[in-house]
Amino acid sequence: MTTLKFPENFLWGGAIAANQAEGAYLEDGKGLTVVDLLPTGEKRFDIMRGYISSLTPLPEEFYPAHEAIDFYHRYAEDIALFAEMGFKALRVSISWARIFPTGEDAVPNEAGLAFYDRLFDELLNHNIQPVVTLAHFDVPVHLIEKYGSWRHRKLVGLFEMYARTVLERYRNKVKYWMTFNEINMLLHLPFLGAGLVFQEGDNVKQIQYQAAHHQLVASALAVKACHELIPDAQIGCMLAAGSFYPYTCNPEDVYQGMEKDRESYFFIDVQSRGEYPGYARRFFRDHQLDIVMEPEDAQILKNNTVDYIGFSYYSSRTTSTDPEVIKNMTSGNVFGSVANPYLQASEWGWTIDPKGFRITANQLHDRYQKPLFVVENGLGAADEPAADGTIQDDYRIDYLQRHLAEMREAIEDGVDIIGYTSWGPIDIVSASSGEMRKRYGYIYTDRDNEGNGSLERSRKKSFDWYKQVIASNGADLGL
């Protein structure tokens, strides 16, 4: 293992999202966006699935995204810590509603644009490349109220306007872009992924896949805009990845594993290959889904494929057709999985599978033959400061060591990986649960699930470990 190396100029860093870190949810003209309507508590998952009673924040609820970790005001302090670790890249997202508060404003919000100018300048001053996601669980609420969000074709043009605005503005500052974060999340948490709200009697699958088509066309138009405006930039798509293993070698289980993988690959097949795969067309026929496509859509998709495949990897999944086996489902993971008897799980029920990281990377490379960018990976855990204030997160170091070792093996397998930005290098609000207790960072943020705390930042043990990993370009994983 020690002889295997990472490529020169490998982009080591971390990843956060505007809605989980910035806070300042209505400051400087920003409009309401999807995550501003996600409270903590038992209602959260129903809302993320599209069953939401109010498109305005309710006074009796706590919305952790409203303040988050106040990155909006503290970004310089945080970037200094990232620079101390040696980051080469930081993945962030632009809040659509900071730039166009309603999503269809006649002119963009200059205060919002200026904030990202300051943010990108600060990164570049520390020799950190911004890796920018255009839409990370982010739809202006006005577009949900007026158009029903991505179910309506109107959002394609509005998203293109937004994309062109920020691509033009930051053309000299940002060379790595992504269109939609975890685009396949639309099928699992439709409100979170696409701002979709359902009413009783709705044909949910029809709405989801129509919205997916609109997002895919919008993604292709953003790729087109990027190639026109910033010819030396790269723009990719982004998949919530993790292979589905069949529980047994029963062909029914094997086939179901393939079908489960295809639910996610469908999006990337279109974004990377430029057309709908045959299995998707059959799925539409078998489920009587009539996806409205404009005459020009086929050429838009075909002519504007992505430059690289961004993906998140946290865990593998296991599936079965045996009703008795299905009873043993793990909790916590959005995708649902049968418990894998060969693997352990995190406190939140996420299967820990480093070898699955290598498998997933190889499968993506074999399928698409494009560069990969690992833009999320990490362990959510309840870190507890010791009496002296230190945080001994050896369990996180162990998780990351084993995953990075397998990523190094995947590169040796011939997989082209251009960078690795671990998720949440500083503790931020959990996208799934809204908790602060579920921490991923090398940097501790003093804040709890109820919004209490000083927001003071402090280094964990993993901070120095990751600093050494980057300094050695992955040669020293501390194994």
Structure summarized in a few sentences:
The protein is an alpha/beta fold and 479 residues long. The chain has helices at residues 18-21, 43-48, 71-85, 96-99, 110-125, 141-147, 154-169, 190-194, 204-229, 251-273, 278-286, 297-303, 323-326, 354-368, 394-412, 461-471, and strands spanning 11-15, 89-93, 129-135, 176-180, 234-241, 244-246, 308-313, 317-319, 372-376, 417-423, 443-445, 457-459. It has one domain: Glycosidases (TIM Barrel, Alpha-Beta Barrel).
Overview of the structural elements:
It holds the Pfam family Glyco_hydro_1. GO terms for molecular function: beta-glucosidase activity. Keywords: Glycosidase, Hydrolase. This is Amygdalase. Belongs to the glycosyl hydrolase 1 family. The chain has 479 residues and is α/β, with parallel strands linked by helices. The protein has a single domain, classed as TIM Barrel, CATH 3.20.20.80. It has 16 helices and twelve strands. The strands form three sheets. It has an eight-stranded parallel beta barrel with strand order 1-2-3-4-5-7-9-10, surrounded by four helices. A two-stranded parallel sheet has the order 6-8. Helix 15 links the parallel strand 9 and strand 10. Helix 3 packs parallel to helix 5. The termini are close together.
